[in-house]
Amino acid sequence: MDQGKRKSPGEGPARPHDGMHQVKRLRQPDLESVAPEVIRSLPPIANLISCTSLPRTDALRSLSLIVVDLLHDKDWGGVLDSRLLDLIRLRQVVKDHDLIPAIEECIDTGKWEEFFEKRPYFFNPDKLSPPSKDILSRFWPSQAWKVEYKGDRAQLLFETICEMMEHRGEKTHTAYVNIAAILQSSGYGKSRMVDEHAKFVFTFPFNLRSPNETKSGAAFPLPDETVREYFLLPRSGELDVRIAFLAFFAELFNSAASLLQDHLSGPRGGNKFKKLSEVALWWHDYLSLDANRQQFYASVVGSAKRLVEQERGNRSRVGVARESSLMGSASNVSARSQNPVPPLQSEDVLPDESKAARTAFSHLLKTLLGAVLYDELDPVKVIIYFDEAHELATTVPDPVPILLDANQRPLDDTERLLVDVLCSTLDVFMMNPMMILLLSTTSSFDKLAPSRVMARSARMIQGKTIDHAPITELPFDCHPSFPLDDDAYTLADISKLEFLSRFGRPLFWSLMGHSAMGDAEVIAFAKRKLDPTGSRKPSIEVQTAVIDLLMMLDYTPLHTGADLLQQELVAGHMRTVASVTQDRRIAYTGYPSEPLLAEAASSLLEQWRKDTPEIVIRLISEHHSNGLLDLGDAGELVARILLTLGYQEACRKEFLDSSGSQDNPTTYFSRGCKLKTFLECTFVNASLMLAAKPDNIGNDSALPSLESALGNAVVRFTHFSKWDKRGSSHFDAHSAFLRGTAIICKTNQKKVDLIIPILVRTDGKACPHVITALLIQVKRRMRRGSPSTLAIDEADIKFFPKEPALCQCCPGPLTSSSLTILTLPYISLVLDLGVEHTRRYVHLASPPRKTKPELYVSSAPQSLTTRSRSAPQNQRVHPRYAIYVGTCSPTQFHEIDRTGQEGYRKLLRLGHAFRDHPRQGRAHLRAVKELSLSRGYKENEQWLKRKGMPTESDSEEDSDAR
């Protein structure tokens, strides 16, 4: 096969499908004679195997991965025995027929057709039951790599590293200019991106993943075990580590150059490639087929080990060089002093080894350029990447000191890690067109991309390096179906797990399109990503991940504990790194809107709340006590908690009422629930709310109540997500409804803090023209405000468009009333949560001036006096149902009634020197007031006799207005 052209998995000669059906009907004795013919009629196995790194040390695992790949092919899957997916059964077959030597031979040669041709007992003579889904789920990651790569992130990566390399000519100090880290949480396709990038840039890929992660087949790509073993092999000291690294890279470059030369002098007959990207594709395909990658790396490691053994005879020379270099630092009082001494480098201590490595790279570069007709003149010709690079974050014994006093004694006890030594060693190539990438899920920047203050390198401490910020730009919202038509989907369509998987990181949609797993298995997989242990008593980190994903927590900036917690969430619980500052001291992380993950998180939270109903407020209170949370918007956080838990209760109630069983479907949180049910499960006085009348379109008592107009409408929000300044429009609400999220408006957004989208009718498409919203404003004050003045007018935020256009998906009136699609009603909800509960008071009509109700709902107005009511007759007015809740107490919220008020009270409590004073006697408070921390009308101004002083009641009224 021409290796310069990669065939697609389904490509191959014509296949007689009737022959395959014949195989299924044959008995075992007849199968042996026909097997060779059937094998030859099937597509080549080499083109179907996605597991490019077959582990030579584990023949059974190699065979199991190949069997899984073949069974997923439409042709091979109908021939092989699907029961072999059971690893116990496969192990018994291998043992009974003594297949280990044959498997190892196939790993070396790649000739798997002959292996199966001679062994008919691998075939399926009868119709068998479907394979176990539990077995299949272990191999999902390898199947996801068969999906066509989408997006431009691979090209963006190339542009990024070229831009980084251009700094070489701009600054005097260029150390580490050719080293960068790619940091992001699981599922974003870091490995797939650099693999795609390797198709147009000549690349040496190394995966250092721990073999323990791949025992079940759930992790992919598989590790390069020979390289991992070589790099992590315990050595006597840093100099031995440097020697081993330099020997490895010298052999790596020389071996690759030899292979390229052999290829050019082989069947190609001396024909050159047109450009370097074609060489890169050939090399990528060479390492992807027939276990070439493992054979090549095994050869390089073997040669490097022999070279290191030869160097051991020259150890005395290395010692002299080291002593000479360290003597040059005698005057170094500190690397942070005004006159630092140049730090120790590989070429200082190991000049011969460094020169040999550079010479080998020059040889490879010359070979590459000689293999093409023209050079694209890109600043980067070769890429080396280390996947799972955090495996190198182990301490190096006997590190070379970088800070010395006048007597050559170490001043700095900073530990040196393998990754530090690797970067320092690779720095010998800083003037060559080569880039080194370190890939990791962990966000321990102090190990892979430390800031200058945390550096373990003298040159970095001294500012003599170019420190690239980690690369975080990876694919998101890149499903092949995007962009979606906004009027093409019904509520049932957008509630399906396949639709949910389209949003967010590519992991889930790439898996769902290429696996036999059902919705329940996909949700179980997502749960394991959030909660790897699956314990009934989840850790603090797991609880935080789930609650943060659903309700959006804000952490205290520059708080060590908060930073460490967020790093842990990135490393093991799917939190996303949006950006890292250039100095690497601040990382902007969070949970963007990912509906499938939110569904999984909702399911986890539901399970936990059965045993611990107060788990949410308890965790938030604990983080608050430890100073981890920024509670500048504590009122909004409490509102998000109460609304989310009320929504989950409503979804659960509607499902149980409709099905009559306790079965737990996979997506019932994403199905949404009726607005009426949501209000009833969230608010104690929901019946009064549902009786509200529009307060801005006249005084007709026949106007529909909220229940009549919107009672059967649907709300659908499994999580909250932050939106930018455009997040308060009608079309944003429609986008949010499709994603199943509620909107957190931008900071200081006028009038509205949260928006919950509402689908007015469900008998058609969920298009923008049938979307309205619950507009929510959250207050946190000691005294209640005026409900009439706090009510939200949609015109103030320009929620509805001035000239809405009708579509054909949902014509006709919304209800039996005069309300039409051009005048969608909406709800204004004001939550004044900071008010301490005093007494239950409900008022349905417009309250008197000094009445401060705990709950207020709008009624039909007696006159039109507000701005909305005085709109011109030809101007369209959307009916407003206004609701005001004036306390956070069990009398208003079911959740507080179930779990208690104390935790919420602590979060909402407004700091006040008088109220918080431990001694509340009148004399004590008078003495506190005299300390003049807060100036008032009376006690604090005793020194001034003022005429016309306002009364206390007037002062209180002014305070309420404020």
What does this structure look like?
Helix content is 40%, strand content 8%. It is α/β, with parallel strands linked by helices and 962 residues long. Strands 7, 8, 9, 10, 11, 12, 13, 14, 15 and 16 form a 10-stranded mixed sheet that branches. A 4-stranded parallel sheet has the order 1-4-3-2, with helices on both faces. α18 links the parallel β3 and β4 (434-440).
Question: Brief overview, please?
Answer:
This protein is α/β, with parallel strands linked by helices and 962 residues long. It is built from 39 helices and 16 strands.
Give the SSE map.
Blueprint: H1 17-25, H2 28-41, H3 59-71, H4 87-96, H5 100-109, H6 112-117, H7 133-137, H8 140-144, H9 153-165, E1 179-183, H10 190-197, E2 202-207, H11 225-232, H12 238-264, H13 276-288, H14 292-311, H15 315-327, H16 346-349, H17 351-370, E3 382-387, H18 418-426, E4 434-440, H19 445-448, H20 458-461, H21 491-494, H22 497-500, H23 507-512, H24 519-530, H25 540-551, H26 560-572, E5 576-580, E6 587-590, H27 595-611, H28 615-625, H29 634-659, E7 673-674, H30 675-682, H31 686-690, H32 706-710, E8 714-715, E9 719-722, H33 730-739, E10 741-744, E11 754-759, E12 771-779, H34 787-790, H35 794-797, E13 826-832, E14 842-843, E15 855-857, E16 880-885, H36 894-899, H37 902-908, H38 922-930, H39 952-961
Parallel strand pairs: 1-4, 2-3, 3-4, 9-10, 12-13, 13-16, 14-15
Antiparallel strand pairs: 5-6, 7-8, 8-11, 10-11, 11-12, 15-16
Helix pairs in contact: 3-5, 9-10, 11-14, 12-14, 12-17, 12-18, 24-27, 25-27, 25-28, 28-37, 29-30
